[in-house]
């Protein structure tokens, strides 16, 4: 049944070389609408490189990336985000100097319809849009339990909450797919569990989620399908229960 | 309406009231001249704050855009006899075209190439004004620039100019507050805080950097035109590179994180040398010392200091 859902993100034969280090060798993977795909692998396997290439932050050497019907290869990061492909960063990248609410409102940038003159002159359409944007951002924040922190400077929040703010920020863009780069990194057990619930709720809303994560318990619990990378190559792919017992995966993680 | 915009509009209303009453309390024309110069600097530094504090780029050439506004409007009105209001708009259009051309070419490069480009631009404009004597009048300057008029009223006196320049500056501030408290302003601040993260939210870094640059150039051009038609005389020396540096100093002294920093920085540093003249040769020492002191002890400038004291959040 799962295979009937349309492929929303198609990565084909992606290769990347960083000055002699082959970070990715012909990696292909598909993300389907409404699924949580886990991407795991030992340190240096190429997981973050893959997310960086898909989001346009790093350029590939070879391979193609399709998001829905769009070929992404020649697009800038902002153009890819504008299509509805969101991402978060391993190292948070919160906007310091902006409040929590403003951080989340930034996420709605791609949905804005008013331009420079309408905001400069504060015409009714710009005012209405701004109010709607604030309302949406507040509702996302309260869903994640951060409503009471809305007006605090974002950089003053504890680490775990900042990680939630950047997820809220990505969600404010109403993406159709989201790439999460180690969202559980640095979180404690309780926070990680809460994060798992949040990600599951996102899937229920029809979002496609690519989850890069070191916390294997989390991955095994919430992902329907897992892709394992090792030294830039896909070494296994399948449901979590199969992956767990795959000898190639055990070898990659534990050695022979 | 966001609480930030409400607060800024309240403060702006207070400032406008005070500005409106000052001439009734002070009728020394010299003080009014200094206040008018302060207003023009506030206008320019307001634009620079958008560029430096919001878009995270530095310009060392805004005196050049002043010159475009001043010489552009002055020469047009002198040579063609067109109305100064119209020539001000034409000079503004010319500055928009020049700055957009510069912005689109320079701001596609990563890093602070804008500093070098604007520096070179300022030097080029300066030497052009000095060398093209037949057109610009050269180093001695360009006299006899016609004033703005409204019916039979000519804005010649310091008092009349005061009630022309300050409303223009206050309205521009009002509109700029609209901008910074909107999605456009947030996008600019997001960009200054983290370009990659901003781009990954769909914010086009180049568009917003160019927008801030072009807008800041436009403000400088407007200030230059107002200056030329107010003083009726301009010379190249006013628009040298040191004036550009002074404008950036005002921006940082006041605090680049807030438009109020522009008001504080330009509003305090413009009159300061005039008041320090009682110290004779120590004037520059005190001026420089004060500047350094503020920047060393309060890197976020005066507006940053006030935010700390009153616990306000950045607009």
TrEMBL record, chain A:
The keyword Secreted does not apply. Residues 9-256 form the ABC transporter domain. Keywords: ATP-binding, Nucleotide-binding, Transport. Pfam families: ABC_tran, BCA_ABC_TP_C. SUPFAM superfamilies: P-loop containing nucleoside triphosphate hydrolases. GO terms for molecular function: ATP binding; ATP hydrolysis activity. Gene3D superfamilies: P-loop containing nucleotide triphosphate hydrolases. GO terms for cellular component: plasma membrane. The keyword ATP-binding applies. It comes from the Bacteria. PROSITE patterns: ABC_TRANSPORTER_2 (PS50893). PANTHER family: CONSERVED COMPONENT OF ABC TRANSPORTER FOR NATURAL AMINO ACIDS, CONSERVED COMPONENT OF ABC TRANSPORTER FOR NATURAL AMINO ACIDS-RELATED. This is Branched-chain amino acid transport ATP-binding protein LivG. The lineage of its organism: Bacteria, Pseudomonadati, Thermodesulfobacteriota, Thermodesulfobacteria, Thermodesulfobacteriales.
From TrEMBL, chain B:
One of its GO terms (cellular component) is plasma membrane. The chain crosses the membrane at residues 12-31, 37-56, 85-106, 113-130, 160-180, 210-229, 285-305. It is a multi-pass membrane protein. Keywords: Cell membrane, Membrane, Transmembrane, Transmembrane helix. CDD domains: TM_PBP1_LivM_like. The keyword Metal-binding does not apply. Its main location: membrane. Pfam families: BPD_transp_2. It comes from the Bacteria. One of its GO terms (molecular function) is branched-chain amino acid transmembrane transporter activity. This is Branched-chain amino acid transport system permease protein LivM. It comes from Thermosulfurimonas dismutans.
């Amino acid at each position: 049944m799962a295979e009937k859902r349309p492929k929303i993100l198609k990565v084909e034969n992606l290769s990347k070389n960083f000055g002699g280090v082959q970070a990715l060798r012909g990696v292909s993977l598909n993300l389907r609408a409404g699924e949580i795909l886990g991407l795991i692998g030992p340190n240096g396997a190429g997981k973050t490189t893959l997310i960086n290439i898909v989001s346009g932050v790093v350029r590939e050497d070879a391979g193609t990336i399709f998001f829905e019907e769009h070929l992404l290869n020649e697009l800038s990061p902002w153009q890819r985000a504008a299509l509805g492909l969101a991402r978060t960063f391993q190292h948070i990248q919160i906007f310091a100097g902006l409040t929590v609410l403003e951080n989340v409102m930034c996420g709605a940038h791609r949905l804005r319809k008013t331009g420079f003159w309408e905001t400069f002159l504060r015409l009714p359409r710009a005012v209405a849009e701004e109010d709607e944007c604030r309302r949406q951002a507040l509702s996302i924040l309260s869903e994640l339990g951060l409503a009471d922190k809305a007006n605090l400077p974002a950089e003053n929040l504890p680490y775990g909450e900042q990680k939630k703010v950047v997820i809220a920020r990505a969600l404010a863009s109403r993406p159709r797919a989201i790439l999460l780069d180690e969202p559980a990194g640095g979180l404690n057990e309780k926070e990680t569990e809460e994060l798992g619930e949040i990600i599951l709720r996102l899937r229920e809303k029809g979002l496609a989620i690519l989850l890069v994560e070191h916390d294997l318990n989390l991955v095994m619990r919430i992902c329907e399908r897992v892709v394992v990378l090792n030294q830039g190559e896909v070494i296994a792919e399948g449901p979590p229960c199969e992956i767990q017992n795959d000898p190639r995966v055990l070898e990659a993680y534990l050695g022979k | 309406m966001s609480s930030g915009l409400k607060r800024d509009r309240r403060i702006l209303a207070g400032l406008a009231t005070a500005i409106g009453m000052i001439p009734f309390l002070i009728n020394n024309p010299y003080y009014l001249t200094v206040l008018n110069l302060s207003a023009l600097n506030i206008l320019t530094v307001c634009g620079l704050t958008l560029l430096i504090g919001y878009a995270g780029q530095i310009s060392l050439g805004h005196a050049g855009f002043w010159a475009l506004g001043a010489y552009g409007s002055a020469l047009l009105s002198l040579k063609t006899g067109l109305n100064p209001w119209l020539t001000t708009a034409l000079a503004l259009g010319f500055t928009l075209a020049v700055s957009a051309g510069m912005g689109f070419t320079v701001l596609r490069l990563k890093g602070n190439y804008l500093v070098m480009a604007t520096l070179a631009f300022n030097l080029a404009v300066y030497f052009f004004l000095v060398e093209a004597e037949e057109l610009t009048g050269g180093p001695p300057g360009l006299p006899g620039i016609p004033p703005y008029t409204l019916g039979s009223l000519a804005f010649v006196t310091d008092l009349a100019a005061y009630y022309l320049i300050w409303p223009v500056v206050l309205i521009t501030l009002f509109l700029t507050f609209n901008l910074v408290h909107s999605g456009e302003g947030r996008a600019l601040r997001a960009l200054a805080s983290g370009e990659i993260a901003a781009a990954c939210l769909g914010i086009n870094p180049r568009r917003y950097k160019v927008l801030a640059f072009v807008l800041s150039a436009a403000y400088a051009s407007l200030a230059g035109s107002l200056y030329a038609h107010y003083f009726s005389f301009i010379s190249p020396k006013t628009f040298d590179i040191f004036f550009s540096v002074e404008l950036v100093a005002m921006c940082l002294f006041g605090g680049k994180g807030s438009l109020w920093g522009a008001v504080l920085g330009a509003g305090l540093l413009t009159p300061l040398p005039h008041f320090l003249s009682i110290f004779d040769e120590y004037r520059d020492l005190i001026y420089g010392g004060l500047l350094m002191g503020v920047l060393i002890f309060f890197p976020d400038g005066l507006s940053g200091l006030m935010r700390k004291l009153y616990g306000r959040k950045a607009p």
